[in-house]
Amino acid sequence: MDLSYRIAVRYFFSRNKRSFISLIARIAMAGVAVGTMAMIVVLSVFNGMEDLNRKIFKTFDADVKISPREGKRFQVSDSLISIIKSVNGVKSVTQVIEDNALARYGSQQMIVRLKGVDEGFEQQGQLDTALVQGSLKLYGPNGTPYAVIAEGIRNALSISLEDVIVPLELLYPRTGTKTLNVTSAEAFNHITLRPGGIFFIEARYDDYVIAPLSLVSTLMEYGSQRSALEIKTIPGFSEYKISRAIGEKLGENFVVKDRDSLNSDLLRAIRLEKLFVSVTLSLIILVAAINIFFSLSMLAIEKKKDVSMLYALGAGPALIRRIFLAEGAIVALSGAIFGLCGGIAICLLQIRYGFVSMGMTTSLIDAYPVKLMWQDILYTGVIVVIITMIVSYIPARRAADAGQILRV
């Protein structure tokens, strides 16, 4: 072991006889430990929240989505589908028509977000984990069309899957309704379906009705036009790279986005909050580590004679500085190690047992999500090292200067 560290370790353990200096050192260790623990836990929670949102997006949103750059619809042809499927990594393409519509069930009605999908939607199994009642079928054995509705719509319209008499009615304004009386039934196209399944993800998706594409196309008079194409990718392929490749093939008339790009605002907000929390907790650790400064300053005063003796034995200012820097490192790193171990233990317990609940029940998770990442542990360790060097340098330099003065 280096001489400076041997002396620093001896000072660290021997000064426990000095109650006041020992108290300050222990406060410094406790402050660093608590700050470090808090940083590990909070950053892990932000990682978990980001992962949770990605799971939510994956439950409903497509891996890659193609939409028109201008307008609400575009023409879909077999050649366009072939171009998309030629991209390496594309598993399937689902044609989508999506717009607002009026839903009516019995005497209740409300505006919903109607999403028409083709038969490929059932094979994707996106809503399997979010289904709370019924099934994801779009057609029954006898060709009866079914709708999959959100929990929020079921509650608002008092829909019962067991009621085989009352249908779900969907209405959409006919083309050229400006010349018609909007209160007249002739102003709206109209279709009826049977509610076949209920899903629940979160409030963001609580106004969706998913119905067969052919019926929605007739209702909205889209013909062979579509509002979007949703692509399911082969596992292991990068969604971002696939979206880039499709965008290059389709040209500037289309907007092609992967799932993260579709939800970039929310993900960016989570990362920004994580950054601000990291800076805030770093400042808290810095404030807690100020006690190291006071502890080393008092230790330098107490050890003046020892420093003078070391100078007399041939020690230089660099050795004296290293001794006190090592002393500060021992105090800070002791607290950091306890904090890291405590933070990791808390995160692992939350992952395993979910002690802290989110206070609400969802189909995906009921406890606060936590995800440990080695980058956060490394970042926290680097922050503690930098703060330790900052708060230890001035007392170490003063101790070296004071020893030189005493020697003279």
From TrEMBL:
Compartment annotation: Cell membrane
Membrane topology summary: Multi-pass membrane protein
Example of a GO biological process term: lipoprotein localization to outer membrane
Pfam families: FtsX, MacB_PCD
Keywords: Cell membrane, Membrane, Transmembrane, Transmembrane helix
A cellular component term, taken from the record's GO annotations: plasma membrane protein complex
Transmembrane regions listed in the UniProt entry: 20-46, 275-301, 331-351, 377-396
Main location per the UniProt record: membrane
Family recorded in the similarity comment: Belongs to the ABC-4 integral membrane protein family. LolC/E subfamily.
Protein name (database record): FtsX-like permease family protein
Source species: Dyadobacter sediminis
